[in-house]
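Check the record.
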Amino acid sequence: MPSSSPYRPTEPPDSPVHDSDSDADLDLQELDPTTTTTTSSSSYGPGSKLLGRNPSPEQRAPRIALRNLRMGGSRRASGRTRRGYGDLGHDRDGDEDAMGLLDDGDGQPQRYSDGSGHAGDDAPLLNEHGQGSRRKRSLAGDRMQKLGASLRLPSFMSNTSANRDEDDDDDGAEQEDDDPSASRAVAVGAAQATRFPPNIVSNAKYTAFTFLPVTLYNEFSFFFNMYFLLVALSQAIPQLRIGYLSTYVAPLAFVLMITMGKEAYDDIERRRRDNEANCEEYTVLRFDEPGPQDYPASRSPRKLKSSSMRKGQKRPLNRDRLSDIREEEEQTESQGLGQPSSYVEEISKKSRDLRVGDVLKLGKGQRVPADVVILKCLTEGAGGAPAQTSEPVEEESLLVDTEQNGSTSRKGKATEHSTPTDEGNPSGETFIRTDQLDGETDWKLRLASALTQKLPVEELVRLRVNGGKPDKKVNEFIGTVELLPTRQQALNPYPDEENESDRSNSAPLSIDNTAWANTVIASQATTLALILYTGPQTRSALSTSPSRSKTGLLEFEINSLTKILCALTLGLSIVLVALEGFGNTEGNVWYVKIMRFLVLFSTIVPISLRVNLDLGKSVYSWFIQRDPGIPGAVVRTSTIPEDLGRIEYLLSDKTGTLTQNEMEMKKIHVGTVSYANDAMDEVLAYVKHGFAGAATEKTLVTPSSAYSTTAGVTATRTRREIGSRVRDVVLALALCHNVTPTTEEEDGQTVTSYQASSPDEIAIVRWTESVGLRLAHRDRKGMILESTETGKAVVQVKILDVFPFTSEGKRMGIIVQFYERAQTSPDPNHGETWFYQKGADTVMSSIVAANDWLDEETANMAREGLRTLVVGRKKLSPAQYREFAFSYQEASLAINGRDAGMQRVVSEHLERDLELLGVTGVEDKLQRDVKPSLELLRNAGIKIWMLTGDKVETARCVAVSSKLVARGQYIYTIAKLKRKDNAQDHLDFLRSKTDSCLLIDGESLALFLTHFRTEFISVAVLLPTVVACRCSPTQKAEVAKLIREYTKKRVCCIGDGGNDVSMIQAADVGVGIVGKEGRQASLAADFSIEQFCHLTKLLVWHGRNSYKRSAKLAQFVIHRGLIVAVCQTMYSIAIKFEPEGLYKDWLLVGYATVYTAAPVLSLVLDKDVDENLANLYPELYKELTSGRSLSYRTFFVWVLVSIYQGGMIQGLSQILTEVDGPRMVAVSYTVLILNELLMVGIEITTWHPVMILSIVGTFLVYAASVPFLGGYFDLDFLLSWGFVWRVFAIAAISLIPPYAGKLIRRTMKPPSYRKVQGI
């Protein structure tokens, strides 16, 4: 469209009809096609026959309706190509359409452009004058309908049913189910034709229907639970029943109730937390059909049946001549008349009720609840509702364009009346925080498409957004947004091909136009955004693995030991029956005997083992949550505390986990002098002097201004040079950035904050403010810097070009022109123009002029863990800048290789021999005690990996500053690896140097995981440290799974952001930190803490105790069951291999519960070393990972002890009393109880008052209950001395040898903790 056109027409109008009898007359002479062939769509030229300067009387006749009909017909069918007035006769579809008569077949029609594709200042943009300027419906609407019917114009009616009203909220309409593999077309602010999933967050493991089946399956997948189920079921068979049925059923039911109750409680808590997120309230814009209430009272328009005419027209006032069309449309342009496409209302919706197609109104600090495309950014005061205007409507026009919309915002008078509120945020910029998604703390700049930003809110309904299928790639998005003539066409899910071919009113969408779920709006501006993906189809949900039930390593070890015990039981049963010769007695065949023996020996596999271990886990969880050393700790998965003592790999996030995510400028080097800490006061003095040149109100400082010193002070030449250099570097840092200052009202005070995509830049701008130069104002055209001392503007620049930071370029630049006097424009030919650039030392060293200090200084700062930026500048003459601008403009118009071409122009014209100004060092503050914590964990034998979404340089700096990489350790970097043949070379090098640290980026990691999975992990697990950066959440989880599968070791993952959830759930032990990035990670984790340094206590102290205690408890419970089985075996042999029970009913139940449970459970209070020793000697933790506390060796030692003690107790009881009778049972059972109580005492390392109480208390309970056991014991015998000496003699023989063996072994080969305690 020629830019020189004196007039840009609006879209062709919707057939206003003169309300006269002549409307129905078809004068085909008027349809002469020659009048419609050549008129340009962009201007009414003198040659136009339709709008000739001397129109004939025929053309002034009042048969305007047909002319209007012709114009409306050009786009009435859905998807019609839009045209200028001169092209009205082209491309009719179908002979049946009477408008086909107009087709002159001459030439190609020019597209009608409404300017929506132009982001330039001269793009025709519709004025957002709300209700006062809405269009009226034509009073001749019914006549138009009749006329259309008489002509049989199907294309006119193609989009409508008679008098159909759109109901955006009508869920009753039939919808197709969503195909997740297909791309989607979404109509803005309307119900969609496709049914998409609801926007519900769910971390729950179970539903009401799956809870019982899944939990029961999980429980009975453990061998000993299944074993006890079979034993309990066997008691339903009379021949196999031994004692009470409840003896076997009750313990199993108790265990299941405890476990399932705990699972139910955990899941209910998860649902409660999910419900909080799902019930979060959001403001949504509802777009209603504009009704009579939206118009001035002087009109009561009727709704038209045709959707293409549904917006109506105003009735003409004595204006019926074609020659007046142009004049009237110019008035329309200036007055902004016309009825909007919708009436906007703000409503509140819960997060779970949001649907695809809803338009959200988001403010600062709000979490984005779904994946959205940003449509519009409004500055403060611009709400979602249409802005009001006070302009009166003076006169109704003939040609008011009903299709006119915000992308065709008017120029001329309309813009004079528009307010900032009307315009919104003209740049369409907003910032978002994505730390919950990708771990990057930089604020990301997001933009509304130029097509949608300029639209009034009421016209957003005419947009259709096309997006790809749901995808987990958080850094990619490709889509388009289309502006259609009517709302109905936007709603049509199957657009015509003709319309598809017209791209003049569509714009591309990229990642820059989106905000994904769980990101947070960081800007002050109000953001209007369209929901594109919801619930399980959002990026964050697709990147998150489903919750899984975690089972501790100890559980698996005990499960395998149980299988051995079960085999022992079966073998023993068969041996006893075989020794009898498989004989059959009355009522008992040999195989029934075997089954009865299996039931009798079921105590070998103790059901109480699960009860004790579960109670133990609850005690450990209680200790962790009540520990004053780790305040705020929460145990969310109480089934795996023992695994805390078995960790061999720790995978940590960086941002917010190791670092505080707070940047601070620590050091600046200007070539000859370095400033840090207290020396910054000197910089302040230099800046104060350097900007004192702006003595008068209007004079401003430029880089060429002479450096002044304070009056009366004679500075040395060196000092002046240093002062000038410091001033230049501070000025460069204050200008070369993308930071925007914003002001907020807090407690009645105005607070200035900074917005930028990088926290480094904010840190530098804060530093320039601290040394005396404040960024007071910034927009896309210029910046103003103030002196913090005087508050006066000292520097003002016009921004000519900005070259933003990219991960490939690793630098950002800016070209500015300095104002020499305030409130005047800089002279393009005389004002100073400077190019400033800052970037990573790796790229800047070749751009700046030769020097001898840059490499050394950047290396020094890097060793301190500081993030270095090199700053340079170059002065450009007017001719140089013009030459650059011309070349740059040409490169930016190239279709192929545009980015490379633009970068090449910058390199050739600007990035040559820059004057090196200085180097800055910014520190990413570490979390409290991170360095000693990492050192302690490394000494404990834990290999630490850092997985972050941040940049390579940042990751390297933090790895060095946190001492994750030891001083002098070689860091081997693999970045941007794209070819498989190079990958093998890297692996070969790492195999030869296993003491180095590997630094790898996400792209290279993906290649290794795809093609060299096993080879890579086999090398990586040998390295002391691995740092992976630019990792997606899925990659983090994949690495965790890979280490688990390959090494079969325990992996712990720790993080604090939503991007760490997948990794945390994939780990054996997931630890979440409640941090600045929110609570999402801590809610998904097994353990939640508040500081990284708390992890050391969690692992080294609580993990150690939990594992050691559970190992001892498990073995003791097995011993307790095994000793009874041995006694039963001895008894069965004595009574000629008959499967009769030794201890029946209460004796068996009481033994496992009342008489031994408390002392055995008190072992969970035992500790082998105190906390100080555990921290002082983290090497003790290393032993735990080998699993020696519960191994086959220790297990068989306990089996031998059990066989010895059981054999002695039962054998001697039978020898010293009788083979079968109440006396023998009394002696045997009493010794058994006494033996267990004393064995607990022997096993305790550190006594606790509860232990003494439980042992003494249990013995007293047993003594008190003996009088009630007359049915089992001979009570008279119990009161005799014969009973007492037999009990003590047998107990001594049973206990002394094992205790002596333990003392001898401890003396000969003491455990490590004993050696440490002796130091």
About this structure: The chain has 43 helices and 35 strands.
